[in-house]
Amino acid sequence: MLKILGKIKSNKFFPISITDPKPKIPTLYAVQNNDGKQGVKIVWKSNDESDVVGYRLYYSINSDLSNWQIAADETQLTQEINEYSIISPSEFKVPTSEIVNFYKLTAVDLSGQESEMSDVFSVF
Question: What is the pLDDT of residues 58-112, one digit of tens each?
């Protein structure tokens, strides 16, 4: 205890917790088949949070929208860009030879936290 001008003050400290919220859900504007084959071009609105470093693009080959795999990650889909093209699913982070019809996007921050997923886009 400290005594300052006749008043007793506590010198105890109370821990505080600062939480870093996950990034907001990104807005995916378009997923386009850009070559009439299996190539894809994605266009999104960049998040406005200062700690977002990039985005992850997921794909599914299943119409029940299960078994999502990574097509591209934040090392490719950086915060500085808002569109990206991939020539073939064989170039995905987790490659596939299957026909890919479904995509969704997440944002990733400096802490590695990932947002909830965007709406699902389909390409046929």
Answer: 999 998 999 999 999 999 999 999 999 999 999 999 999 888 889 999 999 999 9
Rg of the chain over all Cα atoms, to the nearest angstrom:
22
Residue count (the chain): 124
| Encoded amino acid at 83, one letter | E
Q: Residue 121 and residue 44: Cα distance in Å, rounded?
A: 12
Task: Label residue 17 exposed, middle or buried (CB < 10 Å: 0-12, 13-18, 19+).
Answer: exposed
Backbone angles phi and psi of 70, in degrees to 5:
-85, 125
CA dist., res. 1 & res. 20, Å (int): 34
Q: How far apart are CA 98 and CA 110, in angstroms?
A: 33
DSSP 88: -
Q: 22-122: what CATH class?
A: mainly beta
